[in-house]
Structures are given as C-alpha cells and as structure tokens.
Amino acid sequence: KMDDDDDIPQLSSHTLAALQEFYLEQQQREGMKTSQGFNQYSIGSIEEDWQLSQFWYSDETASCLAKEAVLAAGKGGRIACISAPSVYQKLKEQDGEDFSVCILEYDRRFSVYGQEFIFYDYNHPLDLPENLLPHSFDIVIADPPYLSEECLQKTAETIKYLTKGKILLCTGAVMEEEAAKQLGVKMCRFIPKHSRNLANEFRCYVNYASGLD
Q1: DSSP string covering the chain
Q2: Residue of 100, 117, 138, 212 with fewest CB within 10 Å of its CB?
Q3: What is the pLDDT of residues 116-174, one digit of tens each?
Q4: Pairing mode, if any, of strands 186-187 and 137-142?
Q5: Residue 44 belongs to some domain of the structure
Q6: Are 43 and 72 within 8 A, CB to CB?
Q7: 135 found inside a domain
Q8: Sign of torsion, CA 75 43 133 160?
Q9: Range of 90's domain?
Q10: Total domains present in the chain
C-alpha cells in the first residue's frame, strides 16, 4: 500500500506554532469578551480597523495620555477625544471620576457609547451636532487619522472650534512644522507607542505646560 501522507503538503513546525498561537490568542480574546468580568469599555473591546487607518496606542501610552487629559481638564472638566479612541476607552475605565468625555470618531462601532459618541468625518470639520458648543471643552486630544497636511488642517479646525484653549495632539514627527503653524503646539519629550509598531515616528504636541516633558 502506498503511503498517502506523501502528497499532503506539511506545514513547517514554525508555521504551525505561529498558527496555534494565533488561534489561541483569538480564543482568549473571545473568551475575555464573554467572561463575566469583561468591561465593554476596555481597550480591545473594539479592535482596531486598519481599513479606517486606526492604530491603537499601547496600554501604557493610552493610560499616560488619559491621565494627562484628566489633569489638564481639571475638576469637573470636559475632554474631547478626536480620532483617539484608545485614550477615550482608558478615560471610560476611570468611571465615576470627576470629568466628562466625548469621542468624535468616524468608526460607527463606537456608537455603543451612546450619547458620548459623535460621528466625525475630518473632511467636514465643522459638521458637528448643535449641542457641541464652541469652546466647550477644557482639553481636546486629537490624533488625525492620516499623516497629511490636509488632514491636519481640517482636524485643526475642529480642535480650535471645540477647545477652550488646551490642545494635545498626537501625530507623526514629520508634521511638527505644520502642527505649530495650525495649532501653535510644540513637541513634548513623551513618545507615544502603539500596540503595533508603526513605520512613522510618532510624537505628542501640546500648547500648554503639560506633564509630558
């Protein structure tokens, strides 16, 4: 009898291990979602969608930016997150703290957050609901979805409309001059990290004395 196994292409043990790891991670993630303690606001409850040019911050970076936002907003402060959902999710984890937060985001999956979700398309920077009053946020955190001057200019219109003054911008190092021109922000020492490494060097910019230096 011929050995039938000869024709079956064998996966290398390396590929197999990688596949198993991938499936295991997926199962764990799904398991996390269904287990009782799952927090619908935690990072990862909505996963990044590269088609929408989404890249989540690492947990550490999201926490750091969320802390900075709370400090900058002050007691009872209002925080707006523009295209920065992982910071928003971190802020939501601090439930019951003395601040309020809105998420302006193109990804409609975030509508699970109810009233706090505002559909946002940077191509229409001032197409905002009437209840979002001008200069009604103590700080605006923004991470324009694309590294282009046009995207930054348009997002800047939204930022300037919403903020009482303070701005925390995360974007590529290459946008430094444009960011200064549009928003009067300067680069901080703090380097934001992503859960997946991006090809572009990423930086934080602020226009006030922050804890990020």
Answers
A1: ---GGGGSPPPPHHHHHHHHHHHHHHHHHHHHHHSTT--TTSTTSS---GGGT--PBPHHHHHHHHHHHHHHH-TTEEEEEES-HHHHHHHHHTTTSSEEEEEEES-GGGGGGGGGEEE--TTSTT---TTS-TT-EEEEEE--SSSSHHHHHHHHHHHHHHEEEEEEEEEEGGGHHHHHHHH--EE-S----BSS--SS-EEEEESS--TT-
A2: 100
A3: 999 999 999 999 999 999 999 999 999 998 889 999 999 999 999 999 999 999 999 99
A4: unpaired
A5: no
A6: no
A7: yes
A8: positive
A9: 59-146+154-206
A10: 1
Residue 160, in any domain of the structure = yes
What pTM does this model have? 0.76
Q: Record the tokens describing residue 109, joined without a space.
A: 């999956």
Contacts of 99 (CB under 8 A, 6+ apart): 70, 73, 75, 76, 77, 78, 79, 91
Q: Which residue's structure tokens are 């703090």?
A: 190
- CA of residue 150 relative to chain centroid, distance: 20
Q: CATH number of the domain at 96, please.
A: 3.40.50.150
Q: Which two tokens stand for residue 70?
A: 């709370």
Question: Which amino acid is present at 116?
Answer: E
Indicate whether 182 belongs to any domain: yes
Evaluate whether 85 touches 119 at the Cβ level (below 8 Å).
no
For residues 194 and 61, the answer to whether their CB atoms sit within 8 Å is yes
Give, in degrees to the nearest 5, the angle at Cα 127 between 174 and 183: 30
pLDDT tens figures, 95-108: 667 999 999 999 88
